[in-house]
UniProtKB/TrEMBL annotation:
Full protein name: Methyltransferase type 11 domain-containing protein
Organism listed in the record: Pseudorhodoplanes sinuspersici
InterPro entries for this protein: SAM-dependent_MTases_sf
Length: 275
């Protein structure tokens, strides 16, 4: 009886310590010191102090305001989902926002199309190394630009609630790469008090404004692409956002440079009802 009583006495204390530990775990990553630009991969073309213009896959610099729907970031708390090199994070911060950058790290798997005949282990290993270089680019720019943004890493389907409420969440051309774009949006929607900004490529051109259904991209005959799932028209994104509590939305169109070639993109800005 004494042993049992002692066990019953200690168990709540262990649970208490475990709960306290869980409550104090921070979702934010420690800053990473990156000094060598050769260790980086730039998803965005960026102008970096001490290095000048460094080219990436996307050059949004000339039209970044339209990419973000003309939103006024002054005084807002922002969640940048899929931050990559951090261009949108640093732009919003420059415009007066407090920003949390959220992305994968080398410890997380990409949402790969799981073709039966593909070497998924090789793809995953290669991608993890690639993500580390993208994270390095973010931290290099973070330091050289004097950013105060905070970074958090994890799955887009499970964004930590401990990040806390934000005024606006940004999804910059990432939904096409995700198996479940609706689930990805819902992950941040619960944290977002006011506005969701979703930008994406529209291969249909402006004809896409009349479409409501997605196009499934993976081709099993060719086992490609492995990193892209959907073409998503803007009307579908508007429906997604309305379901998630952002019933008021507008669509704008803009042109951006991808590997020096112009692409048509849209941006949906969805708003909650004002209290």
């Amino acid at each position: 009886m004494f042993g049992a009583a002692r066990f019953c006495y200690q168990k709540p204390e262990r649970n208490k310590r475990r709960q306290t530990s869980m409550m104090t775990t921070s979702p934010f990553a420690e800053e990473r010191l990156v000094t060598n630009i050769e260790d980086c991969y730039f998803y965005h073309t960026m102008d970096i102090p001490g290095h000048g213009i460094v080219e990436g896959e996307w050059d949004l610099r000339a039209n970044i305001g339209n990419y973000l729907g003309g939103y006024d970031f002054q005084g807002r708390r922002v969640l940048d989902v899929g931050a990559a090199s951090g261009l949108l994070t640093f732009f919003a911060e420059k415009k007066g926002a407090s920003v949390v950058s959220y992305d994968l790290s080398e410890h997380h798997s990409w949402d790969v199309v799981p073709y039966a005949n593909a070497d998924l282990t090789k793809i995953d290993t290669t991608r993890r190394g690639h993500m580390r270089r993208i994270n390095n680019a973010y931290w290099l720019c973070h330091r050289l630009l004097g950013s105060h943004a905070r970074a958090s890493y994890g799955s887009v389907y499970d964004i930590p609630k401990t990040i806390g409420p934000v005024d606006v969440s940004i999804y910059g051309s990432i939904l096409l790469h995700l198996r479940d774009p609706f689930l990805a949006l819902s992950s941040a929607a619960g944290l977002t008090k006011s506005t969701m900004i979703v930008a994406d490529v529209c291969p249909f051109g402006r004809l896409g404004q009349f479409l409501a259904n997605p196009k499934f991209i993976p081709n099993p005959a060719r086992c490609s692409p492995w990193d892209t799932w959907w073409n998503l028209p803007p009307r579908l994104i508007q429906k997604y956002l309305a379901i998630l509590g952002f019933p008021h939305s507008e669509v704008t169109w803009h042109r951006q440079l991808y590997q020096h070639k112009p692409k048509t993109l849209y941006t949906v800005v969805g708003h909650r009802d004002k209290p």
